[in-house]
User: Which sequence fits this backbone?
């Protein structure tokens, strides 16, 4: 027996199956991301007033790279437009143009993920150093002439590991000073002062990773979950652009519907980012 | 059956193509608006509103407009069927409840929590 309404709309609802399915799925996705956003908001509003790392549990506002985040936002918005243009091209019976737009979409998706992993690498190699005299400083560190990072993240350091490996000095490329809003101070300039710090003076050393501050925990959790959505969407859209495109010959209406449904998911991923970007980068 | 569907869309193809072409123009306008919105969001970060509540409100207001444009035009929500609206109204109610309950509990801290400390520059 043939499954009804795979591409024709059901008369009473006016919808084909997949459209009902994707909207129910997106509704559950709203709750998934909503739960994580509410966790973020709770942590954000209950953080002590001040600026991390001067106040240990205050919020580290303005710590993420805003120009890169802005660029990535533009990349994702572009891919959202191209996927809807791909659908419109099919509607206008132009398969060649459809494929071009789909390729741009998938390229944008991987560009987004590449840029994101560059940002992750920066955070994994960025450290906060709390000294025994109560001062805190942040910057990229160098231990035994090496820079730890995301792409080699076994190479993470803390005080215990430094003692274990009998390291007595580390170098820190100190970040420019920030004001209370998290903006880099104007006079600070772009030169990073390199300071050598004796391990015996360090009370706490931690990279910008979940165990160091709740902000990083919630930042990595939400952005990584969003990143997985980008990856999943890219794989599905890539499939529709090439092997799955056979259906354009056998059942064009159902194929157009598939692109519409895949596009709906893709726009949702873009929507999450539209809220995520100001919330984690700017607030 | 596929043959049938292609020929039927080809028979009144002209009208239909104009329709879609008009859509494409709309999509490009929305694209521009979204990019402007992004720049505006970032610009607001450098404005000192002196109140965190206002800063958050402005950022979320701009984000909501962008979200409306994406959902309304790219996801065709402005002209969708009733069932989809029904699903979304339900999830909106649950979403508000989720956020509301969380914020409601935000002053109900676990025992031995560290209370807020004031920043001394």
Assistant:
């Amino acid at each position: 027996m043939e499954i009804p309404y795979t591409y024709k709309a059901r008369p009473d609802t006016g919808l084909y199956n997949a459209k009902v399915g994707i909207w129910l799925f997106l509704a559950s996705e709203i709750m998934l991301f909503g739960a994580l956003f509410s966790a973020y908001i709770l942590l954000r509003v209950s953080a002590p007033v001040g600026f991390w790392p001067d106040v240990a549990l205050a919020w580290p506002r303005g710590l993420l790279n805003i120009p890169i985040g802005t660029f990535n936002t533009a990349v994702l918005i572009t891919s959202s437009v191209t996927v809807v243009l791909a659908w419109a091209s099919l509607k206008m019976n132009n398969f060649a143009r459809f494929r071009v737009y789909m390729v741009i979409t998938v390229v944008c998706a991987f560009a987004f993920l590449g840029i994101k992993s560059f940002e992750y690498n920066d955070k994994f190699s960025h450290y906060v150093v709390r000294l025994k005299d109560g001062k805190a400083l942040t910057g990229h560190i160098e231990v035994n002439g090496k820079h730890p990072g995301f792409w080699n993240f076994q190479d993470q350091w803390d005080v215990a590991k430094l003692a274990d490996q009998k390291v007595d000095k580390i170098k820190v490329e100190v970040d420019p000073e920030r004001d209370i809003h998290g903006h880099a101070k104007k006079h600070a300039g772009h030169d990073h002062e390199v300071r050598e710090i004796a391990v015996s003076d360090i009370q706490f050393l931690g990279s910008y990773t979940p165990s160091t501050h709740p902000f990083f925990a919630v930042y990595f959790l939400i952005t990584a979950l969003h990143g997985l959505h980008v990856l999943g969407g890219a794989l599905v859209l890539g499939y529709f652009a090439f092997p799955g495109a056979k259906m354009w010959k056998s059942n064009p209406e159902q194929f157009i519907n598939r692109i519409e449904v895949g596009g709906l998911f893709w726009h949702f991923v873009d929507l999450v980012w539209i809220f995520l970007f100001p919330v984690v980068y700017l607030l | 059956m596929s043959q049938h569907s292609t020929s039927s869309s080809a028979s009144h193809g002209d009208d239909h193509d104009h329709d879609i072409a008009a859509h494409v123009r709309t999509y490009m306008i929305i694209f521009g608006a979204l990019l402007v919105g992004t720049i505006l969001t970032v610009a607001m970060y450098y404005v000192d509103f002196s109140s965190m509540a206002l800063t958050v409100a402005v950022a979320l207001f701009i984000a909501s407009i962008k979200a409306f444009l994406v959902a309304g035009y790219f996801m065709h929500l402005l002209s969708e069927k009733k069932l989809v609206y029904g699903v979304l109204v339900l999830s909106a109610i649950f979403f508000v409840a989720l956020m509301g309950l969380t914020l409601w509990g935000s002053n109900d801290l676990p025992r031995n929590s560290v209370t807020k400390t004031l920043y001394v520059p």
Summary: Chain B touches chain A through 62 residues (CB under 8 Å).
